[in-house]
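Protein chain data
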Amino acid sequence: MRRTMGRTALLAGVCMMTAAGAWGQQKAMEEKATWKLSSIDMAVTFAPERAQQVGSGSAFWFEGGGVDAAAMYKNGLGIGVALNGERSSNVAPGVDLNKITFLAGPRWAVWSGHAGQGKQAKPLHLFAEGLVGSAHAFNSMFPSPNQAATSANALAVQAGGGLNLELSPHYGLRLAQIDYVRTAFANNGSGSQNDLRLAFGFTVRIGR
């Protein structure tokens, strides 16, 4: 009887170890699957940006656009990059301003739903992101210790999000994007700029 009980205990132990190993392997596979690449999302946008003049407080608008892309994973997280370019004329008498920013950072798939009903329903994707990078401004005037410079570089931060509408499995529209953009160019004032950026355009999605 003792031998039978020993065999039973040994068998139970083997079964428990096998089950634990299978559970661990399944858990590892599930965790690995969440980091499986789901899609590459790209967009080309028209992007006006509202800024303010130093001292006067009056606002002006940049005209420009951008391209952005993000590698999205099945857990809803991704890595995004954005290249934006803007221009504004006569920000001060006889002074123009051109700006280019390159940024990168995390993107989150916040929500997915549908616009419309039945077979006519189109997928919607809401995302949020926080990007950091560099800004280069040129063809303008910037204060410096010796004399005014015509170009400058600065840290740039962009935070916000947007809403995409899929018209087909691979093509769609960037219905709206709203971002807070902060740069740190010298300006004989606070030494920083706080802008509101809007964007609208076309999207391409590779994968699902």
Remarks:
- The beta strands are 37-46, 49-52, 59-73, 77-92, 95-115, 122-138, 152-166, 171-183, 193-207.
- The helical segments are 2-34.
- Residues 1-34 form one domain.
- Residues 115 and 121 are 5 Å apart (CA to CA).
